[in-house]
Amino acid sequence: MIILASASATRAAILRNAGVEFEAMPAHIDEAAIKHAGAAAGEAPGAVAQTLARLKAQRIAARLPDALVIGADQILSVGDVWLDKPESVTEAADHLRRLRGQTHTLHTAVCCLRDRQMIWQHVATPTLTMRAVPDDFIADYLAAEGDDCLSSVGAYRLEGRGIQLFERIDGDYFSILGLPILPLLGFLRQHGTLR
Amino acid sequence: MIILASASATRAAILRNAGVEFEAMPAHIDEAAIKHAGAAAGEAPGAVAQTLARLKAQRIAARLPDALVIGADQILSVGDVWLDKPESVTEAADHLRRLRGQTHTLHTAVCCLRDRQMIWQHVATPTLTMRAVPDDFIADYLAAEGDDCLSSVGAYRLEGRGIQLFERIDGDYFSILGLPILPLLGFLRQHGTLR
Fold first, then answer.
1. Span B61-85, pLDDT tens digits
2. Which residues on chain A are in Cβ contact (under 8 Å) with B167?
3. ipTM of the predicted structure?
4. Which stretches of B25-64 are assigned E, i.e. beta strand?
5. What contacts A105, CB < 8 A, 6 or more positions away?
6. What are the structural domains of chain A?
7. Can you give the pTM of this predicted structure?
8. Residues B28, B33, B34, B36: is their CA dihedral positive or negative?
9. What is the number of CB-based contacts under 8 A between chain A and chain B?
10. Is A73 a catalytic residue?
11. How far are the Cα atoms of B21, B53, B114, B164 from residue B64, in angstroms, in the given order?
12. Contact status, residue B29 vs residue B59, Cβ threshold 8 Å
């Protein structure tokens, strides 16, 4: 049995579309506190994303030790600042004003646990350069996207008109969306969970 | 007015999702003959894809000279062989047997015409490495995908279980699907057709 320890509809869709059979179980951990502690301790964003992915998987693995549990997390860093998923359209506008004209990195972590032990982990780091869009462009964009802009940490959906925000995108598309599916499938095959 | 001179549902979806207003008009040209002539003359696949994109756009521009007409084409090359979009599941299986264990290139061309003149063109060349999957994997994959596998020149849909066929993918996701949307949007803004 494969469990995806995530509440993300996007991650579940990526895994389901790839033809993997699994069950999704959201794992509730205090992400904000862990991020805050990691940042205060001078940890790199990729390391903190790995910690968060592991903690979510461990939370589920404690209940279902026999399952193969997939944990995942994503942190956006722009310079020294880390952004959290926006909770309102106002906050999404703040994010976009912070990101415009800059290159940011998505630290997308994924790991697998079996018998409560970490048996595999991976971090992808796609980078995205946003155009220096004016305030009214951001306002029009958010009005068109509505609450859809809250589904991504950067307040953009590349599969929608969010693509108009960008000048340059480097890195794997699925890792940008939140799950490095290619290395994950490679591990699942190696582990004998997938053909 | 923007016209997409293409019958591809995938290309139309990419452009529509990006928030561009346009009308799609399929342009019928003898693609097979042009490819054959290009290959016989020793032309590079990227150059032939550009020719095909241009001819499709010209076919529409002849009727609608005032419109901005977008032409697009994609050629798959593996070694010296060029593959065409499969027309049956049997042909899709031939494609996958040819591609497995190899790295292939997608030559994805896009151009814009205004007043019958070419005003912009671009070719993206993502590369994809397929795993050396056995025959029964291909059979199971095609049985699961059905006619959906006929929508892509390589007989795979990365947004579906086609992702399981791959070891490595390098290049822009949208250019793999058939339209280099990021450079196209950049041109449309520069041209004043888009904000």
1. 999 999 999 999 999 999 999 998 9
2. 182, 186
3. 0.92
4. none
5. A45, A76, A77, A78, A125, A126, A127
6. 2-190 (3.90.950.10)
7. 0.94
8. positive
9. 51
10. yes
11. 17, 17, 9, 43
12. yes
